[in-house]
Specification:
The complex is a heterodimer of chains A (about 450) and B (about 220). Chain A has about 450 residues and is an alpha+beta fold. Helices cover about 50% and strands about 15% of the residues of chain A. In chain A, helix 1 runs antiparallel to helix 3. The longest helix of chain A has about 50 residues. Chain B is of the alpha/beta class and about 220 residues long. Classes of the chains: A alpha+beta (about 450), B alpha/beta (about 220). Chains A and B meet through helix 4 and helix 5 of A and helix 1 of B.
């Protein structure tokens, strides 16, 4: 069935109906062929038998001399058998009719001079005729039988063959229907199970009792279910985590505001108000990132053909983040390739989002007085590489592996990251076919992120 | 009352500490689960506020561990996990109360007072011993209905003794109730506070148990 989506006749969408139609159609054809063969064979055999019978009757007449033939009162012979009246004879002597049986036609059944079997049509009736010379000279005997009588005999013998088969046919159909139903039973059960699944139950379909032919299908279905379940779970965890991550800054804002309300002196009040503002900034950043991520998730695919000059974006992002670095006495350094680099195949806004997240993460997770460097270079085959590296503590292998998880933050960091930055970076990269690699910076000793494109 | 605050978020933690101090609590703040576990096991705190999403050791694990170690300190879980199942799990693991972020400072303080009251077998918020009456809500002390000026450490000292009325508190235990970390406590500080307090209260309210500590009897002294 590979590659063919359409399953034949429109009325036969059901496997069971297809099987039934095919099997019963074949049975009927075979049955008809058998009946035809039987008909022909029976007709032939019965014909021979009747011919033999006719020649036998003729031989009785042949044994009689002419004078005895003339004295026959054939009309008075008793009807001993149902077929009998249809067997007739005529006796001619010197082309004159001597005698004929009552049901025989007046004109000769066969032309003069013929001998043996022949066919004749007299008064619209077809006859089978056997002609033989009599005992005396110039005596000709015709024995005839109507074809309809002969056909009756054939039909009678056929009837006994046909009617058991005619009865057997519906029985056979019933049996085939039952067998097909039984055979496709596991399929029907499978369909029922799939249709009646709870939408969010991740249990796989049972493989026991599933026919071998369908097993790959069930395997694939189960894999699909598992994938859906993990997606669903990820979605739920994301919602729960997002709620968690939003609640904490809001709780902090509220708490600091209440502290400001209840403050006894100006210093305490000012501290609390400053902390309230800080909390607002943090919540804003988190909401911005969540929205960015949500928008990226909803992005159906590539907006192809859009290109952005990385250096312009980089200048802007570094300008925005400069004060952040200054506050913590961090050295933020840009080393753009002097001849310019190939444009990045992504919209300007998203390139900025990507750069901002990378640089912001580097600054955020590096200590005071750390060094963060952004570099662009042109590689072979027209590839461009953007590198963000820092002199921070870097990440252990275990943490590197977990980095993709949303809201994952390295424990013990005092920085209030959302844990969403890396998710956003990888999402943008996936959407626009950029290669992102993580590693350790050889120069600065901290984390190094390479983004490459053609 | 000395509160152990366990919260990994800087901003919320500092807010909680400042807010609870405004409400008259002494606050010790730790930021991870391992430290929380260690501190809770000392039993130095009257009550604890525990966040669940903690570095190094999850809040739920801390709860189970300290309850397994028979730590009796009342614990209020403060978390963003709002699912009913999470609340049930938290309470079943040994939390005495469960608050969902964001919270109101006054509600948090009231709940902490209620937890402390209940954990000391008190029905009323007001603590009474004979003619002496302490209202933790208004931070006021009355003797035979007349307000008495007891504030600061003296108030905390009286509060601790009244909460544990009938039980002798050692000087060390009283210090634990009165001082956050980092406070240099002079060797005779408690004696000085007791001395000042005694002058404001009816005689023999605070009894000295020589070589052990101090006690206030529930019915007061004759």
């Amino acid at each position: 069935m590979s590659g063919r989506g359409h399953l034949g006749l429109p009325g036969l969408q059901s496997l069971q109906a297809r099987l039934m139609a095919t099997v019963m159609g074949l049975v009927c054809v075979v049955w008809l062929v058998v009946v035809m063969a039987t008909w022909l064979d029976t007709e032939h055999e019965v014909g021979e038998l009747l011919d033999a019978h006719m020649s036998q009757a003729a031989s009785l007449l042949v044994s009689l001399p002419l004078n005895e033939l003339t004295r026959l009162h054939l009309s008075e012979t008793p009807t001993l058998h149902g077929y009998q009246p249809k067997v007739v004879f005529q006796v001619f002597h010197l082309e004159a009719q001597v005698v004929r049986s009552a049901t025989a036609p007046a004109q000769p059944l066969a032309p003069l001079g013929s001998e043996g079997f022949s066919e004749a049509v007299i008064d619209g009736r077809a006859w089978r005729v056997f002609t033989t010379p009599g005992l005396d000279e110039h005596v000709v005997i015709h024995v005839g039988e109507q074809d309809t009588a002969r056909a009756d005999v054939v039909l009678a013998s056929l009837r006994s063959v046909i009617w058991p088969m005619a009865v057997a046919l519906p029985l056979l159909a019933l049996a085939v229907w039952g067998a097909v139903r039984w055979a496709v039973g596991p399929l029907r059960l499978l369909g029922w199970q799939v249709a009646h699944r709870e939408p969010d139950v991740a249990d796989p379909l049972p493989l026991a009792g599933v026919p071998l032919e369908v097993r790959p299908l069930v395997h694939e279905l189960n894999r699909l279910f598992a994938r859906m379940a993990s997606l669903l779970q990820a979605e739920r965890r994301f919602t729960a985590d997002a709620a968690h991550e939003l609640r904490t800054p809001i709780a902090a804002i509220r708490m600091q505001a209440q502290v400001a309300q209840g403050a006894l002196d100006d210093d305490e009040r000012n501290d609390a108000l400053a902390a309230t503002l800080q909390g607002c900034d943090r919540a804003t950043r988190l909401v911005t990132q969540l929205l960015q991520l949500a928008r990226l998730e909803a992005e159906p695919g590539l907006a192809t053909g859009v290109h952005t000059d990385v250096h312009t974006s980089l200048q802007q992002v570094l300008g925005d983040l400069w004060p952040v670095a200054q506050r913590r006495h961090q050295r933020l350094e840009a080393l753009p390739h002097p001849n310019g680099v190939g444009p990045c195949p992504a919209p300007e806004t998203l390139v900025a989002v990507l750069l901002r997240n990378l640089v912001d993460n580097a600054l955020r997770y590096s200590p005071d007085h750390a060094w963060v460097r952004v570099q662009t270079q042109t590689l072979d085959a027209g590839r461009t590489r953007l590198t963000v590296e820092d002199s921070g503590p870097g990440l252990s292998d275990e943490h590197l592996a977990r980095l993709g998880e949303r809201f994952f933050r390295v424990l013990g960091t005092q920085q209030s990251g959302s844990g969403l930055g890396w998710s956003i970076v990888t999402r943008v990269a996936t959407l626009y076919g950029l290669d992102v690699r993580l590693g350790r910076s050889a120069d600065l000793g901290g984390l190094r992120v390479d983004v490459e494109w053609t | 009352m000395r509160v152990l605050l366990v919260e990994d978020d800087d901003l919320l933690g500092s807010g909680l500490r400042a807010g609870l101090r405004q409400q008259g609590f002494q606050v010790d703040w730790v930021r991870d689960g391992v430290a929380a576990d260690t501190e809770l096991r000392t039993g130095a705190h009257t009550v604890a506020v525990l966040d669940l999403g903690l570095p190094r050791l999850d809040g739920m694990a801390v709860l189970q561990a300290v309850r397994g170690a028979k730590v009796r300190t009342p614990i209020l879980v403060l978390t963003a996990r709002d699912a009913v199942s999470a609340r049930i799990a938290g309470l079943d693991a040994g939390a005495d109360d469960y608050l969902i972020k964001p919270i109101d400072l006054h509600e948090l303080a009231a709940r902490l007072r209620a937890l402390v009251r209940r954990s000391h077998g008190q029905v009323q918020n007001r603590l009474v011993a004979g003619p002496v009456e302490l209202d933790p809500l208004s931070h006021t002390v009355r003797v035979r209905g007349e307000p008495v000026d007891v504030v600061g450490r003296e108030y905390d000292l009286l509060h601790a003794l009244l909460l544990n009325a009938g039980r002798v508190l050692s000087r060390g235990q009283i210090e634990q109730h009165l001082y956050e970390w980092g406070h240099e406590v002079s060797s005779n500080a408690i004696e000085v506070h007791v001395h000042h307090l005694r002058r404001k209260l009816p005689p023999k309210t605070i009894e000295t148990v020589r070589g052990v500590g101090y006690v206030i009897h529930k019915a007061g002294t004759a």
